[in-house]
Predict the structure.
Amino acid sequence: MSKINIAIPLYGKMAARALHQPMFRQELVNQGFKPLFFLNPTHLRLFDFDPSQYFGLNVEAYEKFDAEHFLLQQIRMLRRFVVRTETTDLRFREMIQSKLFDATLMGMSAQMTFVGVLRNIPNVGRLLEWLEGYFYTPKVHGSQFDALNIQCVLTPGMGNFGFWQEGSFALEAQQRNIPSFAVITNYDNIVNMGYRGFTPICLGVWSKQMADEAMRLHGFSAKQLEITGPIQYDRYLHPLSVSRDEFLNSLGLDPAKKTILFAGGVNINHYFDMYRVFVEQKTKVWRESFNLVVRPYPHVKLLGSPAWRVLERLFKDAGAYLSNPGSIDGSGDRNAELKLDLAFDDTIDELACLLRYSDVMVNYFSTISLEAAICDLPVIHVGYDAFAHGQNFGVTSAFLQRQTHNSRQLRLSAARVVRNEADLFASLEAYLSDRALDQEARRKYAESECDILDGKSSERLVNMIRARL
């Protein structure tokens, strides 16, 4: 029986880590598909790829097409904001703030009025989607669709903010009557990333909560949705290949000690504050010495900063283990980080082990706290900014807390939100004394976001596609 050729464009990091993971690739093959990956050029150059299965996503051509069409730029800007949530309101204000010093007063006022009025018109999202699909479908990969006999397409996201390239790819496929499917790759995509850029045959969502939001905010009907669960989290639901003692010993850490994981964001000030807490005031953290693991956010904004070089040395000198998800060297080379996105190396899943074997995690309202809840790891959200002077509001704890997905009651009840240093020390003491605290709340939160946590999301997603072809 011949394989079904399915094209999968992967531009961003989260998309690659979801749709190129080994479990999902194997499930496609098991169910009679041949995955054809169209990769970001920065990913494509890392390995000697099989040329019959890996191709370049022509990002340059898409970006050139976008730059040549002013109205398309306005449509996409509007689509980002017509989904009315607290987060999109915040992002709208952030956009205005970022342009204040470059735009004229009249120009800025006109744009604010333009966006502010149109985003409140009922069903304007559908109109914008139609306009983009009808007038602004690029012609970039069409000849490859024909030459490769592509029979369906699966994209991360729905062509909304952060998924422009994949959305353009899907529009090209739909123009050729190729069935296009989509899957959500992060729990904030429905509420935070604006209106969709195309309507897939079916959208794979994580949970009933996400399905309800897709119907309410994006106008999907129930028959256009299927609850598959989060495929990138399947790996957390399978047995680990090493024990806790083996894993911690391999990192040069002491299995007899408590282990604290700090997972930061892109705001480098937060790392300086946590250095002050966990190194300079370590006697206030726990009555005994402890293992400290620092996992920096894998983004060039942080790892490419000269200040990160200083912090990296300070943490290492203090005995902390840096779980760098791919480091960036002095020349800005990101190869090690990007290779991890594609999950080709058959190595121990360090993040999965850290989430299972640590005793508590401290972070700033990031996605990893959901992964921690899935792995039953206690979480402390830092709800204050020790160093806020001169900081862009968009990277502060205050901004993060106001986002729609971060203000859900189940999310807040599954963790401790600390408002000052004294709260932080007290919460660390509580969780390090009893790791089972808030265990039931963590379970409820994880299930609210992910529904069925059985490690079979990849199977359900592939079944969704096959059943509708």
Observations:
- The radius of gyration is 23 Å.
- The chain is about 50% helix and 10% strand.
- The longest helix spans residues 86-99.
